[in-house]
Amino acid sequence: MGGQGIERRDILRFIGIASLAGSFPGFSKWVFACAQDHVHAPVAANTQGTPGPYKPLFFSPQQYQLVEHLAEMIIPADDTPGAKGAGVAEFIDFMVANRVPVSTRREVRSTRDAIEIGNEAQNRFLSGLDWINARSKSEFGGEFMDCAAEQQKTLLEELAFKAKFKPTTESGREFFQFMRDYTVVGYYTTRIGLESLGYPGLRTVWPSMPSCSHPDDPEHIHLGEPGRRNAAAT
Amino acid sequence: MPARTFDVIVVGTGAGGATAMKILCEAGLSVCAINSGPRLEPAKHYQMHRHVFDLKYRGRGNPRRLEGKAHQEPYSVEESEYSEGQDLFEHDVAYSNSPGSDWYWKRCKATGGKANFWGRSSARFGDIDFKAADLDGFGENWPVDYAEISPWFSKAEKYMGVASTVQNRPSNPDGEYLPAMPWRCIDYIIQKGAEKIGVPYLPDRCAQLTVAHNGHPACHYCGNCSRGCDVGAFFSPTWFTIPEAEATKNLTLLTNALVRSVLVDEAGMAKGVAYVDRTSKREVQVYAKVVVLAASCVETAHIMLNSKSRHWPTGIANSSGQLGRNLCDHLYGSPGYGYLPQLLGQPATPDNIADSTVAWMPRWQNLKNPREEKFIRGYSVYMGGGCGGFPGHYSQIEGFGAEYKRNIKRYYPTPVGALIQAPTLPSATNYVDIDPEKKDIFGIPQLRFRFQWGQNELLMWEHSKQMMIDLFKAMGAEMWGADDEPNRPGTSLHETGVCRFGADAKTSVTNKWAQTHDVANLYICDASIFPNCTDKTTTMPLVAFAMRTCDHMLGNFSNGVHRRV
C-alpha cells in the first residue's frame, strides 16, 4: 500500500476506517502503510529513540527543538515513552526533508504530485512554527519555548478543542492538526508506539487464529470498560 | 535463430494463465508461457515480514521512486515500500482515459500477477447470476448454468483450498470447504446487529489455508497476505500452479516479454504471438498451434484489439464488434464506518492477523422477488475492524496530551467499517478501445478506458449507506462517517466483460468454452469472458472456468480440431 493509502486519500475523511486496514483487501487501500506489520524472526535492534545528537536535515536547531517539544506535548511519556522517547522529531525532520507525503488531502498521481505535496509540507511546517511563536508572543509576550508550561498548554488547547477555538486562529488550528498527524504517524510506526497500544502484530507467528473469548455475550454489552465499572454504575 | 513452435502459447501467468499452463503441461503438451514482467521470487521479493519501523520511509516509500517512468501513479495496497525497487508492477506502459473517465488500472507484471496479492474471497457464482436476465429481464443470460459449472467450482475449490461453512443461501451456492476461520469479537457483534435488521453476516468463502492442504502449509496468521505469502498458505500461481507446470518439464517460461499482438496465418487463424523483449526492446515472434490469452482481462482485449490483419481489421476475433465492450467492475467504497462503544478500553486482540474477509454480508437483496428494490440484482458487503497496525481513529478524537494518548488506546479495539462490493451492469458506454494517438515506450498503441458508474450501482451505493445507518444503530455502534463518493473505477481489480462469452457469435467474442467464435485456436482464460461481474469476486471462478476451458481444449487436441506440433 506504499503509503498511497494515506497519500491518495483524504486522510481525515478516511481515517475512521484506517485502522481496519489489513483486515481485508478492500480496506487496505484506505490504510496507512504500517497497517499489517510484524516479524517472523527477531529483527535487528530498533535504533529509533536512541540517545545521541541528531543533526536536523530540514529544521534549524531552534525549529527542531520546538517540533520535538510540540510532539511530546501531543504524545507525552506516561507509563510508556512519549514522542521524544520514540524519536518522533527525527521522523518528522526526515519525512519533511525528503518530501515524503504524510498528511495530505491530495492524491498522488505522479512524482511531481508527491514532490509538490512535500514542498507544501515544508512550507506548512515553517509557517506553522512561525505562527505558534507569533501567537505566544502576542498572548504571553515571548516565544513558545520561553513560555510557562501552563501558557503553552493554553495556547494548544485553543487550537485543539472546538469549545476553546478563538477567532482568527484558523491557520494555527490547521497547523496543529497537521503537526498532530505527523506526530501520531511518527509515534505509532515505532516499536515503542505499537507496544504502547498492545498491537498484537508485533508477535511473530500465531499457531491459529484466536477467536473471541466471550461468545456467550455476542453483543458484548456486558463486558464493561476496565477501570470504568464504577462510573458506569453510578 | 528460427523460432520454435509450441503446442500452446499461454500469454499471462496469473490465476487463469498459470492454471492453463499447469493443466496443459500436465497433459503432455509443450507450452510456452509468456510473462510481461520478471520472475517473482518470494525469498527475494517478499520483504513483508519486516516491521514498518524497519523500513526507511515507514512504509510510505521514496516519493521519487517512480520518477522518469511513463506511468508514475503508485498503486495502493499491493505496491508498497515492501516491494520497492523490485520492478514487480507496471510503470513503463502507460494507458489513457477518455475525457470524463478515471479508470485506475493497477497492474502487477511479475509472474503470478495480481494473484500473488489477491484478497482471497472465493464465492461461487450461481444460477441467480447466470440466469439473471431471465429473472429481471436485463441483458442476456450467461451461456452456462450452475449444474454445468458446479463440478468445476468443486475442482477449483479442492485445488486452491477455500475455508467456509455450508450456509444454504439462494444467492451463494455452497462448495467444498476447509474449516472456516474463527470469529473475532467484532464478528459476533456485527452478526447480532445484522440479524436485528434482517441482513446475513456469515463466514466468507476465503481461499486461505486454515489447515495444511495438498502439500501447502496452513496459514501462520502473520497478517501480511496482501504483500504476498512467504510460505504459500493461500492459493497463488507462485506457490501452486507455476511450480507444478515447471515440474512437468514441458514448460518454457519467457519473462520480461510484453505481448503486443496475436499473429495469424493465411486463413486468419492464430499462429503465434509477437512480443517486445523489454530488455533489448526488440520484437520477437513465437509460434504455436493454439494461443491462450490470459493477460488480465482488459490487457487481453488490448492485445486482441492490437492484433489487426486483413482478416481482422478491427482486432482478432472481433467479428461481433464486442471486443473491448461491456466493461464491468465492482463499485467499491465505504458506506459507513465508526466504532463499537462496547469494546472501549478492552485489551488489544489480534483482529487483523488473518488479513482477510473473515466474514461478509453475502447478497440479500432481490432474492425473493428480483425487482423488490429500486435496483436490480444485488451487492455484498465486507466488514472489517478491530485492532489493526495503526490507530487510524486518532483523528476522530479531540485534543492532545496524556488523555489523548490514553484515548487512542481506549478506542483501539473499537473501529468498525464496511466496504460495499456492487456490480455494474454492462453498458454501451463502458468499454476499452485503442487510443488513436498515444503509443507506449515500446511503440505499442495504448489502451484507453471509457467508464462511468451507472444508475443501478449508484442506487446500490445509496441503499448500502442507509443500511449501514440501520446496522450501526442495531449493533449499538456510533458512526463516524461514510465515503462521499465511491472509489475510482478499477479499484476493486474485478474488471470483467471485454471479451464476453455467449451462445451467439454475433453478440459475443467467445463461445461458452472461452474459445473465440471466429478463431478456433484462440482461447481466453481470464475474467474478460464474464459478461458481468456479479456480487462475487472473480479469481476462484476464473480458475474454475480456465480448468474447464483447458479440458475442452484437450478434447479438441484429441479429436483432431487442434493438431500438436
Present the secondary structure layout.
The complex is a heterodimer of chains A (234) and B (565).
Chain A: H1 4-7, H2 11-18, H3 25-28, H4 61-74, H5 88-97, H6 111-140, H7 149-160, H8 170-187, H9 191-197, H10 229-233
Helix pairs in contact in A: 4-5, 4-8, 5-8, 6-8, 7-8
Chain B: E1 5-11, H1 15-26, E2 31-34, H2 42-45, E3 96-97, H3 127-130, H4 132-136, H5 146-160, H6 185-196, E4 202-203, H7 241-247, E5 251-254, E6 257-264, E7 270-277, E8 283-293, H8 298-305, E9 330-333, E10 337-339, E11 359-361, E12 380-385, H9 402-410, E13 415-423, E14 431-439, E15 445-450, H10 455-474, E16 478-481, E17 522-524, H11 539-558
Helix pairs in contact in B: 1-7, 1-11, 5-11, 6-10
What is the helix content of chain B? Answer: 10-25%
Give the CATH H-level superfamily of the domain at 5-120 and 249-329 and 429-450 and 497-558 in chain B: FAD/NAD(P)-binding domain
At the fold tier of CATH, the topology name of the domain at 5-120 and 249-329 and 429-450 and 497-558 in chain B is FAD/NAD(P)-binding domain
Number of helices of chain B: 11
CATH structural class of the domain at 5-120 and 249-329 and 429-450 and 497-558 in chain B: Alpha Beta
Distance between the termini of chain A: 46 Å
- Overall body shape of chain A: globular
Describe this protein's structure.
The complex is a heterodimer of chains A (234) and B (565). Chain A has a domain at 45-197. Chain A is built from ten helices and no strands. Chain A is an all-alpha fold and 234 residues long. The longest helix of chain A is centred in the middle third of the chain and has 30 residues, at 111-140. Chain B is an alpha/beta fold. In chain B, strand 7 (270-277) and strand 8 (283-293) form a beta hairpin. In chain B, helix 5 (146-160) packs across helix 11 and helix 6 (185-196) crosses helix 10. Classes of the chains: A mainly alpha (234), B alpha/beta (565). Chains A and B meet through helix 1, helix 2, helix 3, helix 6 and helix 7 of A and helix 6, strand 10, strand 12, helix 9 and strand 13 of B.
